[in-house]
Amino acid sequence: MSGRFGAVIIGGGQAGLAAGQYLRRLGADFVVLDAGEEVGWTWRRRWDSLRLFTPARFNHLPGLRFPARPDHYPSKDEMADYLVEYANRFALPVRHDRRVRELKRDGTRFTIRADGGDLEADHVVVATGPTMIPHRPSYAGRLDVPQLHSSDYRNPDQLPDGQILVVGAGNSGAEIALDLAPTRRVVLAGADTGRLPVPLGGLRYRLLNRLLTVDNAIGRRIAYRSTGRGSPLVRTRPEDLATAGVVRVARVIDADGGRALLADGRKVDVAAVVWCTGYRPDYHWIRIPVFNDGRPVQHRGVVAGCPGLYFVGLPFQSGFASSLVGGVGRDARYVTDHLAARRTAVGRPTAPPGPWDADVT
């Protein structure tokens, strides 16, 4: 595949599909490039028992409600099936097995070098999400036991009998600890992340969602601190872990052989480790100087330093929910509205839009 498009969306997950839905409504000439083999592939590759941390009423994308009871917590495969239905419903032009190797700005246009052919575009929306490179701490190599990152964990059968250390006490760590607890002794290490301090959907939550953005000093401090220590628990409660027999311990600071050294000085013998220590961004393929400390410099996804370049799905992009399924739609609409206005301003108007469906938020 090769050619020139009005817009190219890089990434075919929930953020990329939401942006595609808005561009489709606007009549834009665009394509979605995705590295996966099918829509929803990143969800299907997660651990077997995974359920979303938020109930179905918070998991809608623009224009299509999630097909489940409002209080149902969807499984990973239900989420993947929903994304497949979404892409099909709106006839989104997703091209699979199209990993992007390089994005450059060449004059007034962008050039995209991707598997399957190179492209040119007037606008680019980067929707690759926050889960890029699985992160393990530097001391992981000093642990002489089987190890998995949460991105590779599927079920307890992958791990030996004995005491399992789960490192990272955020949502993923808590969920995996509960998955292991019926058949293993589980030690969950990490600072207490607490729980989301307000109920989802209420007035206080909406205010918190607006505050937690990298656009203001308070939001940046909380957002970057949360990124390093794990996000507050949403579905799982501390008492759920205690009831399941999961042992909570301090964070791990070092390791030696089959023992982990904790911040409080204790040492823990372990048979295996699951690292729920998050991910690190990887934008090495974007050859445009729009980054500061590895993060794109943007306002609500619009990159002022490179007109025509946008991001969707970043953590705390415009609020707490920006990287969650139910939060990507608001940001997707903002950047595609900006894209459409810019396209008109430079003399390349989109086709007249059809009727706008009521947004589902």
SSE arrangement:
Layout: E1 3-10, H1 14-25, E2 30-33, H2 41-44, H3 76-89, E3 94-95, E4 100-106, E5 109-114, E6 117-126, E7 133-134, E8 147-149, E9 163-167, H4 171-180, E10 185-189, H5 203-211, H6 217-229, H7 238-243, E11 247-249, E12 252-256, E13 259-262, E14 267-269, E15 272-275, E16 279-280, E17 291-292, E18 295-296, E19 309-311, H8 328-345
Parallel strand pairs: 1-2, 1-6, 2-3, 6-19, 8-15, 9-10, 9-15, 10-11
Antiparallel strand pairs: 4-5, 5-6, 7-16, 12-13, 13-14, 17-18
Helix pairs in contact: 1-8
What are the defining features of this structure?
361 residues, alpha/beta, FAD/NAD(P)-binding domain, 2 domains, 24% helix
Structure explained in plain terms:
- The chain is of the alpha/beta class and 361 residues long.
- It has two domains: 3-132 and 281-345, 3-Layer(bba) Sandwich (FAD/NAD(P)-binding domain); 135-195 and 232-275, FAD/NAD(P)-binding domain.
- It is 24% helix and 22% strand.
- It is built from eight helices and 19 strands.
- Strands 1, 2, 3, 4, 5, 6 and 19 form a seven-stranded mixed beta sheet that branches. Strands 8-15-9-10-11 form a five-stranded parallel beta sheet, with helices on one face.
- A hairpin with a 2-residue loop joins strand 4 (100-106) and strand 5 (109-114).
- Helix 1 (14-25) crosses helix 8 (328-345).
- The longest helix is centred in the C-terminal third of the chain and has 18 residues, at 328-345.
- It is globular and about 65 Å long.
- It starts with a strand and ends in a 16-residue tail after the last helix.
- Mean pLDDT is 89; it is low at 351-361.
